[in-house]
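yo

u said u wanted the structure for the complex thing, so here. seqs first:
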Amino acid sequence: MVNFKTKSSFLKLYSWLPIIFLFISVLNEFDFNYLNLEYFSFNFPYILIFYFTLKDFKNFDYFLVFMAGLVNDTVVGLPLGLSSFSYILICIATSYLRNITIRPHPIKDWFYFLFIISLINSINYSVLMLFFSYNIILIDYLINNFFTFLFYLVFVYLFNQYLRGLND
Amino acid sequence: MASSRDDFIIAIRSAFLKKSTQQKFSLLTLFLISAFIILLSSLDLKIIRYLKIGINEVVYRSSFVVSIPENFIKNTFFEVSEYTTFFKDYKKNEQELNQLKSNYVSSQIIQSENRELKELINDYVSSSDKILAKIIVDHESPFLKSIIINKGSKDNIKIGTNIYDQSYLVGRVIEVNYKTARVLLLSDLNSNVPVTIAPQNIQAIITGDGNNQGQIKYIKDGFSDEINQESIIYTSGTGAIFKSGIPIGRLSILKDNLASRFNVEFYSDFSQLKYVFADVITKTETQTLNNAELDSNVSGGTPMNAKLKILEDELEIIEQTNLKFIKENESLKSEINKLENEIVDFKNEIFLKKEKIKQYDIDKEELTFLRLNLEYGHKCRKSFFNNKGYSVGSTMYKKCVMSKGRKN
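structre next:
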C-alpha cells in the first residue's frame, strides 16, 4: 500500500517535470551563458513551451506558462509582461498548428518552430527598441534564434524519451 | 477559396478561445493580460512599480535558491581552473600587493587633501560608506548585462548608487527594491559613462559592447590621434552620475583597414563577481554653514536673513583682506625706495672704483715708459749720431721707447 502511494506521488512529480523545468530554467537562465562563448546562446523555455503545448501535454498549464514569463522578465530585467506575451504567442501558434495538422511531421514542426521564434524575437526586438528604448544588438538575437532552432531537435529527442517513460 | 479562409478562421478562433479541460484560462485572455501588463510597464505607474518591487523581492530570492546547484558547478569549474595557475598568480599578486601598498599611502594623502579642498569649495562634504553586497543573481543574459545584489532601499541604496569591485567601477543601480537592487553593468549596451582618458586628459563617453568590454562612444574630433595603447580610463564625474576619479579600465586600440576602434578592457571581470561594494553617499553640511544657520536660528531670522548675514560676513572678510593688502603694499613701496637708494650708492661707488682703476693703469704705463726710456731712450732720441731718431717728448719717441727701439 505504502509502496503504491510512493509510486503514485513519484509519477505525479514526473508528470509535472516539464513545468518544473520551465520554472527552473526561467529562474536560473539555464543557457550556458556563463561559459562566455561569444557567439552562443539559446532559449530553452521556447523549446520547452513549443514542444509540450504542441503535444497538448495535460500538466502544461497556460496560466503557469504565463507566470513563468513574468518570472523571466523579472530575472532578466525586461519590461514586465514581454516574455509572457512571447510564451503565450508560442502557445497560440502551437494550438493553431495542432488544429490545422492532420498528420504531424517532426521536420515540419521544426521549421514551423523556426518561423514562430523568428516572429517572436522580431516582436521582442521591435517592442524593446521602439517602446522601451533599449539598445540591443540584432546579431545577438539572430544567433540566439539560430541556436534555439538547432537545439530543438536535440531536446525533441529527450522530450520524446520523457513522454515514452511517462506512457510506460 | 472561401472554404480555406473559413478553415483558417475556425483554426485561429479555436486556437485563441478553445480551452482544454485542464486549462483554467483561454489563450486570448492570457494574451490580452500580457499585452495589458506591457502597456502598464511602459506607463511606469506607481502601483505597478510597487507590484514590481514585490515580485522582484520574491523572484530574486527564488532565483538565488534555484541557482545554487548551477552556481556550485560553475564555481567548482572556475576554482579548478584557478588552481592550475595558482603559484604563478601568487607570485604576481605578491608583487602587485607591494606596489599597491605604496600606492595606498599616497592615495590616502591625496584623498585627505581632496577632502580638505572640497570642504573649502563646497557647502557640504559628501562622506561615502562602502557597504558590502552579495550578488544573488548574476545570470548573464545575452542581451542585457545586469546583476542583482542583496542590498536595497533598506540599506540606503538609491537609483544611481555606484557599485565597485574593490576600487574599480562595476556599474550603477537602476532598480531598487526593499532588500535587493539591480545593477546595470558597464558592459551593457545601455550603459553610458563620462570618462577621462589619462595621461592625455581627454574627455569621452564609454558604453558597453554587450559582451565583456566597453568602447568609446563619443570623443571630440582630432583628439583620437592623441590616444595611445594602454591609456588609463577613469570616471570624469561629469553629470554627477558617477564619482570622479574611479578607475574603470585600460584602452586598447584595434586598427581596421579604414578606421581605428577604441575598446576598453575593464579592470574588473564581471563574470567572476561574487561580492561588490555599494557606495552609499550621505551629504553633511560643513561646520561653517552650520554655524551660520545656528546664528540665524538663534536670532530667529529667516533663510533670507541667514543668507544676508553670510554675505555681510563675506564682505567683512574681503574688507579686512583689502586693508591687509594695502598695508603690505605700503611696506613694499618703502622697501623699494630704500633699495633704489642703495642702488644709487652702489653705482657711485662703482664709478669711483673705475676711476681709481683707470688712474692706476695710467700710472702703470708711465712707469713702464720711464723704465724703458732709461734702457732704450738713446736708440730713439735724435742726436748727431742718430739722424733717424725722434725729438724727446713727441708721440713717436714714446712709441719708439715702448717698442724697445726703432724697428728697421
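Residues 296-300 of chain B have pLDDT under 50 and may be disordered. The domain at 126-285 of chain B is CATH 2.40.10.340 (Thrombin, subunit H).
cya
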